[in-house]
Amino acid sequence: MDNGSPMRAKLFVQFLADMGVVESHSRPYVSNDNPYSEAQFKTLKYRPEFPDRCSSLDHAVSACGDLLQWYNNDHHHAGLGFLTPHDVHYGLADAKIAARQLTMHRAHAAHPERFLRGAPKVAQPPKEVWINKPRLVQLGNEQPAELAL
After folding, report:
1. How much is the pTM?
2. Do residues 12 and 6 touch, judged by C-beta distance below 8 A?
3. Alpha helices of the chain — where are they, by DSSP H?
4. Nearest to 28 by CA among 8, 13, 14, 58
5. pLDDT tens digits, the chain, 149 residues: what are they?
């Protein structure tokens, strides 16, 4: 959210609360405090089925529900090693990566001349992803150090 005047309006804040959205002002007056949400919105906004306008709240909820289902279950994300969020969240990533690697190995074995840089390696998702990574801090003489969020 960009914290423009509609974002500060009481009615909009009430709408967010009604939808179960908790306001975050970790970086006031900054529109991109959650790069993952920003990337998700941009991806959805440029989908052909993204509506120019919604005729009602029900239309908006339906359109967003369909788009989010696609985004989470069907869209392969480059930042996740071309897996879907569903695959990563539900522990399917290792099996999918192994199957891809086997396919690539077979393709390389059958036609090595097609692979100028040698045997291909399948992209891996990151091990950890943070917006603001917790850092280790030492509090007084206490051991061990705890995570500060």
Report:
1. 0.63
2. yes
3. 5-8, 10-18, 35-45, 57-73, 85-89, 93-110
4. 8
5. 455 555 555 687 788 888 888 776 666 666 556 778 888 889 999 999 999 999 999 999 999 999 999 999 999 999 899 999 999 999 999 999 999 999 999 999 999 999 999 999 999 998 887 777 777 766 665 555 455 44
Sign for the CA dihedral angle at 95, 96, 101, 107 comes to: positive
CB of 97 closer than 8 Å to CB of 81: yes
Give the pair of three-digit tokens for residue 32.
């991109």
Greatest extent of the chain over all pairs of C-alpha atoms, in Å? 64
Q: At what angle do helices 57-73 and 35-45 cross, to 10 degrees?
A: 110
